[in-house]
Each structure stands twice: as C-alpha cells, then as structure tokens.
Amino acid sequence: xxxxxxxxxxxxxxxxxxxxxxxxxxxxxxxxxxxxxxxxxxxxxxxxxxxxxxxxxxxxxxxxxxxxxxxxxxxxxxxxxxxxxxxxxxxxxxxxxxxxxxxxxxxxxxxxxxxxxxxxxxxxxxxxxxxxxxxxxxxxxxxxxxxxxxxxxxxxxxxxxxxxxxxxxxxxxxxxxxxxxxxxxxxxxxxxxxxxxxxxxxxxxxxxxxxxxxxxxxxxxxxxxxxxxxxxxxxxxxxxxxxxxxxxxxxxxxxxxxxxxxxxxxxxxxxxxxxxxxxxxxxxxxxxxxxxxxxxxxxxxxxxxxxxxxxxxxxxxxxxxxxxxxxxxxxxxxxxxxxxxxxxxxxxxxxxxxxxxxxxxxxx
Amino acid sequence: xxxxxxxxxxxxxxxxxxxxxxxxxxxxxxxxxxxxxxxxxxxxxxxxxxxxxxxxxxxxxxxxxxxxxxxxxxxxxxxxxxxxxxxxxxxxxxxxxxxxxxxxxxxxxxxxxxxxxxxxxxxxxxxxxxxxxxxxxxxxxxxxxxxxxxxxxxxxxxxxxxxxxxxxxxxxxxxxxxxxxxxxxxxxxxxxxxxxxxxxxxxxxxxxxxxxxxxxxxxxxxxxxxxxxxxxxxxxxxxxxxxxxxxxxxxxxxxxxxxxxxxxxxxxxxxxxxxxxxxxxxxxxxxxxxxxxxxxxxxxxxxxxxxxxxxxxxxxxxxxxxxxxxxxxxxxxxxxxxxxxxxxxxxxxxxxxxxxxxxxxxxx
Lengths: 364, 364
Description:
2 copies of one chain form a homodimer.
Chain A: H1 2-10, H2 12-15, E1 20-27, H3 31-42, E2 48-56, E3 61-63, H4 83-91, E4 98-102, H5 107-110, H6 113-118, E5 122-124, H7 135-146, E6 152-153, H8 165-173, E7 178-184, H9 187-197, H10 202-211, H11 220-223, H12 226-238, E8 249-250, H13 263-269, H14 274-286, E9 289-298, E10 301-310, E11 322-329, E12 337-342, H15 346-363
Parallel strand pairs in A: 1-2, 1-4, 4-5, 5-6, 8-10
Antiparallel strand pairs in A: 2-3, 7-9, 7-11, 9-10, 11-12
C-alpha cells in the first residue's frame, strides 16, 4: 500500500482530479438490481465513477451494455444463464476494481462468492443466501476482507438501507462486545400484526399483503419466520458468534396442516384460522399489550417468535412496515443503540447496495 | 491506485498476512483522548495495527511513547505545547498513514486541519470546532477526502458513537437528498427536562447536572443551546447545505440577566427561575405533553428550542441522557430513519473515534 500513499503525497495536484473507477457486474436485474442500475445511471459521485461491465438475469448476460440505458440490449430469451462462464470471465479479467453485485437470491450464485473473492473480485449483495449457509462458508467469506484480498459487503441483508450491519461491525472491530440484539426485522410481520390490531381478519391480511407486494408470492415464506431467522443468524455471525440455522428456535405462523398444501389450497384454508388470531390479538389488547414478531439474539442463542409488547413501547408503536433493532453491548449496556425505519423496498435497498459499492470504490 | 490492487491479486499469500499499520498522534489526552489511548492499547484488530506516534496535552508533547503505557512519560509541566512545532513535524514526516486525532476542542488546533490534510495527514476528531467555523473552511476540509488526498472524519461530533454522520454521508453520496433532520442531540437537555418532569426544581437540576458531569463546568455552555446549534450546523453542512452559525435561531435557557454574571453569581441567582420552569412544565403536562429541547433542520433553515411533544411519542419517551435523530430524505419520505441512544460519554465517544481511525486505516 505504501506506493499509493506516497504518490498521493507527491502528486497532490494530480490526485486532486482523479476519480476512482470501479467496474460492476450486476447479477439479477429485477426489483433491486434494476433499481440499482437506474440509480447508478443518475449518480454523479465526486469520488467514485461506476462503470457497468455487465449484467444478467436468469436467461441471458449482456457484457459492456449501453451505459445510459443498460437494459436496452436485454431481449426475451429462452436461454439459461451460464454462471460458470460469467464467473470465469470476471476472475480471469485483467481489470482491477471489479465488483460483483448479487441481486439474484440464488443459492448457486451464493456459492460462487468464495471463488470471486479469492481472485480479488469484490462482492456486494442484498441477499441473505451466502451468509446463512454453513458457518464454515461464512467464515471463509469473512476472511477475505480481513486479509485485505477483496471486500465483501452485505449491509442490506438486514434492514435494507438502515445502517445495521455496519454499526454492528464497527462496534465489534473497535473492541466492543455485543451482548444482545433484539427487535423486529420483518416489515411483513409488522404489517400483519398492525392490521390484526385494527380488526382486519387474518386471512384478509395475508391476501392483502400478497397483493400489495409486502409478502413473497407464497406468503408462507414470510409466515414461517424463516426470513427473520436468517436475518438474526447473519446478525449473530457478524457479531462474531458461530452457529447454524438449526440452532435457532422459530415460531411459525403457518398452521401445521397447511405446510404441505399447494398455494391455492393454502389460500382456501387460511380463513379457518381467523378466529384463533382474532382471539389471540384480543387477549393481548386486554392487557394493554400488542402482538409483535420479535427476534432476540444473546450469546446463549437466538429466539424468534410472537411476543406481547407494551402498547406504549417503541416496539408497540411500530407502524407500517418499519423495522426496529436494539443493540446492547458492553459499552451500550444500560441504554442500547436503537435503529428504526423502513426495512424493505427496492429504492432504499438498492441505495444501500450503492453505498456498499461506493465504500468499496473509495478503498480501491 | 492500480499498482496496489494488481499486487493484491498477484500476491494473495503475502497480502493475506499483511496488517496495515497507521501512526497516530493524539492531541488532548483528557476524558476522550485518554480513553481512546487506553482502548487502543487493548485492541487487537486483524486488519489494522495502530501505533501511537505521539501524544500531547496543553503543556507538553511526548513522541514515540511507551506503547503499552503511553502516559508513563507525561510529567507535570509548566510549559506550553508548541502546536506549530507538532504540525511541522507531522507534515514533514516521511511516514505514510499518519492520523492526527484532535481531542482538544481548541480553535487554534482546529485551524491546523487544512495544513495537515493538504500534506496527506488524515484527521479524526470528536470536536465540533473546525466544522462550525466559516462555511468556506468546512468546504476546504471536505474537499480533501473528496479528492482522495487525505481522510477527514468527525462521526462523533454529533451523537458520540451513534452512526449519525456516516448515515447522512452515505445517503447523500448515494444520490439521496435530505429533506429534514429533527430530534434531540443534547443528553444534558434530555436530563434537564426529564428531571423537571419528575418535579425536581430547575436550580437543583442544574447543580446536579454539573456535579454528575452531565453538563459543562459552566452549565450556561449547555443551557445556551450553543452545543445543539453547532451539532445541527454540522448536520446541515454534511447534507450539502451552506450556512453560517448566525443563520440559526436558538432559544437559550440562560436568563438574559444572568448571561454576564460570574459563575458563582449565576448559581446564586438561578433559583429565582424555579417557579417559571415549574409552571412551564406543568402547562405542558396538563396537555399530555412534555418539554423537550429539539432541533430541526430543513432546506429552509435551522430552528433550535423548547418544544412541547406528545408524551407517548418517541421524543416524549426519551430518558436518561439519550439522543434521538430522525432523518427524512427523498427516499425515506413517509417514514424516517431513526437513530437513538446514548449521545455522550467518554467510552462511546472514544470508541467512535476508534472506528473512524480503523476506517481510515482500511483505506490506507
């Protein structure tokens, strides 16, 4: 590193006008990936210039796209994207400062990160996949930035654009120790319990959530608590704790009998459970409490499920699709750091990935 | 920059074991500076090694101190620290990756930042001084990191260790636009109004605050609202807005008649105002509201003063010496990013400066 800094000192005039360029490959150009590409086209950052090297969806790949309108070359195709070919091309490139953005959510792509990072290709992703595979894979990925070989960023995997992961990382790196993280990390769950409290039947809420795009196409993916479990697994591992997904206790909102149904069957039967949820909600309200879907991590483990919280508490006041995270550490022991806000949405998620990209760019 | 990244790719084995070293000069080794030095002595960060190049208080400077016990060479002295000599030594050094930490709060030291930065010496500070001088000086300091010449970090100037400044910077850099920042950024003020609400007389609160170390030795420095005004000036400038201190409306809690008193005279007379504050607090409580000292920045300007907030709002629920900041932007328009927690204290402030140092180190 010495040469660079030296030259910085010696060539003040030159470096004052030098903007760093990073080369981006965007895998997945749906909601988040597509929004990211559009945000980049409009961005004029004084420190970092981002050039789109390539992009792909599950069907095709475009190298060196039109920078103003990167989607113009995407055509309707029946091909299947060859990931190995893309990864080979990126890892064998002579170009420096390549960043691979994974907005696919694909497990197969997640397994490519180690190869990319080991070849000096940086990775930024909003996906929870890679970090929730085996602990040993998480450790491998985390080792690359630590040894200075390549950056690996996943700020948006928890809380979208909210500064949660970086805050936890900074605390740990500066010698603090996280003793507890608790809160709500699912906007879908906030929506469900907020609606329940307003008297909307459970089955109606689930149908609405799907229609409004607040839930996955199959709402059971949210109702199972799997999304929350994965986010807490990532938080715990980022704090330096080692554990696997199966060590987490998760309370599922999917009735046992509806787990194996087809999606249509699920929607046909879900209204059978309206009375159960109405009564559970009423019981909480009577005690001046509200239902919330809460996760809690401590060094003893992770616990995910429905909790009754005080109506006038920060969690009780949660509205819309907001997230709220409380971080307790050795230094923040009596009063935690609290971070609250919208924890989903393509604009804020893409912007969070963009911040990760710029942070990598500034280090290049 | 190209050479470095290239060598990263070519020498994976080598770089895997290379920890970056930064050289620190700590100006001011009181509460925050002293705590920082102690935190560094205990730190074992895998990416960045921090070596203390020198430290000083207002009386003397120690170069190359004992790394395990850096204070051991500090003696009682009647000398006066020669800042020009220190700055000259740092700017003429052949060493790279020097970071100057200013924990003095001194205006004279704040005016040295530009010289340090222009010579490639990075600056990290919890002090509000430099950023609240003329806008033109703020712009000059901000230009150095933008042009890649040297880093300038001041995360802890607002909210201590809470991730406020970095969050604002990331939002702006990723193309978002801040439309409003509001909240409480003075732990002292939270304490005063929380105590008032509990029935403690105003004069007693002020005496307690001083004794507990929650206020400055002369409590008028907090009561004037100057601390809050400066923090909001820094927030607004960090958002990219240009304004001077005199453009800010500030409601002072110091009675006009007591402004020019000696400190003893101030404490002798402050109880004359107990009735006024008792009645003002009662009036708010009757309306189910609470008094809070709130700042608000919008592109139209900054307004600082006492506000009546709903008892059951986030600001109404604020306790202890917590801060709470709400950030509204184009992308976070309906629901803001909220960051809450302890906004003062030597441990969390020093840890925040340490995070700034590590972030600089990783870029070196």
